[in-house]
Amino acid sequence: MSPLEAVLIALAGVAAGTINTVVGSGTLITFPTLLAFGVPPVTANVSNTVGLVPGSMSGVFGYRRELAGQGARVLRLGTASLLGGVAGALLLLRLPSSAFDAIVPALIALGVVLVVLGPRIQRSVAARAESRGGIPDHGVWWVWPAVAAAGVYGGYFGAAQGVLLMAILGIGVADSMQRHTATKNVLALIVNAVAALVFIVVADIDWTVAGLIAIGSVIGGQIGATVGRRLPPVLLRAVIATVGVVALVALLA
Prior knowledge:
By secondary structure, the protein is mostly helical. 80% of the residues lie in helices and 0% in strands. The longest helix has 26 residues, at 177-202.
């Protein structure tokens, strides 16, 4: 690896850490970068996952104020992300990539639609839940299995995992977009961390690549927290939808 390649990989990590903290889909920057520099696809995927974990931690720290009062919710939904992340990582090691080629774009497209239509759908969900006593703090009944399913996807590949999580939380949990972003960061961290642990044990990791991405993503996590916190709900929703569309186009190209 040349010095220039090392710098570019680190910069890709900065960009990925920034995007992951605000929305998700940072993998769409780092993964193609690694492939362009000749890193084998599976090695690139697992090394990228390991490298982005410190960036996820940085993003969680950056949004720590918005996590206040969400301990019980994060703990409950975190178990779904934990189980889903393990399942997704194991699937990556056992199934060919073609197994998810059809469903991944569909999931991202669904996530974008749900983010855009989120407020309208959330009002309908809230109205139905009101007749049964209102929406629980941890969300309506389907939020837990939906977060687990997003965890499976995140453990397998992860691009636009944040878009799916923001759609799920925005519709099924009654809270602000900024607090949803904080929750999303924790859930994504759990998925990435458990997948990284599986990969460390059983996969071939390029530790130089992982280290460069880690350094960059930590910096990016703090940038993302600063930028994301300043976005009003409507603009944040627009950013999420835009990133989702870009991710969809990139995967279908």
